[in-house]
Design a protein that fits this description.
By secondary structure, this protein is of the alpha+beta class. It has one domain (21-213): Porin (Beta Barrel). The chain is 15% helix and 55% strand. Strands 1-2-3-5-6-7-8-9 form an eight-stranded antiparallel beta barrel. Strand 7 and strand 8 (178-188) form a beta hairpin.
């Protein structure tokens, strides 16, 4: 009886939460990012240059009440396409001239909660939460000696896909939409157990997007 009551209560709570939120808008834009490669060891190949990348992405803005400011949920996704290599079990960005590289398709999923402030006509938001970086070895050059099994083992055997994300942004109203610009920081939590420096793989990005309002559609 207690088990059935618990299930009913959980269903009621989920239904109440679903009834309380509203999908207000969708952001579509680009991120210009810098990804840091730390020195992994003292060998000649222990340090590789950091890279810059351009990533398209979308995000959904979910509100929990009708107030212009307050707590919000902003799940988002970004796509990446960069060469990477595995150095002593740690993934890092690479150049296409490196023999051990593979081209990696990446999908970054952000599950962030935040708080938005309304200042005159502008919305200013601060958010944070887990970011999951799914990476798939998708191809290699003819000169590459890389084995895809090494990448799968590094990405998922050592859980190098778990990141912490922090983001701040400002929305500027336009005629029929908003322009949203901000800064995003993503840090692999797996550095705590993979043996890499804490800042290895850190990604800092400038973001720009158009925000399309959904209310009333």
């Amino acid at each position: 009886m207690n088990k059935k009551l618990s299930i009913v209560l959980i269903i009621m709570l989920l239904a109440s939460a679903a009834h309380g939120f509203e999908v207000k808008s969708i952001d579509a834009g680009m991120a210009f990012a810098w990804r840091f490669n730390a020195k992994l060891d003292s060998s000649p190949g222990g340090k590789q240059p950091s890279i810059v990348l351009l990533s398209p992405g979308v995000a959904v803005n979910i509100d929990f009440d009708e107030a212009p400011d307050g707590v919000y949920f902003r799940p988002g996704a970004w796509l990446t396409w960069v060469p990477e290599e595995i150095h002593k079990g740690v993934a890092r960005s690479s150049s296409q001239e490196r023999a051990g590289h593979m081209k990696i398709f990446g999908f970054i999923s952000e599950l962030h909660f935040g708080y938005v402030f309304k200042i005159k006509k502008f919305d200013i938001g601060f958010q944070g939460g887990p970011s999951v970086h799914i990476r798939i070895p998708a191809g290699r050059a003819k000169n590459s000696t890389a084995k895809s099994s090494e990448f799968w083992r590094a990405y998922y055997g050592k859980a190098q896909f778990i990141h912490l994300g922090i983001n701040s942004w400002m929305a500027v109203p336009l005629e029929d939409m908003d322009f949203v610009f901000g800064i995003n920081c993503m840090l692999p939590i797996s550095n705590l157990w993979s043996g890499a420096q804490l800042a290895h793989g850190m990604q800092i990005a400038l973001t720009g997007a158009l925000r399309f309002q959904l209310k009333g559609i």
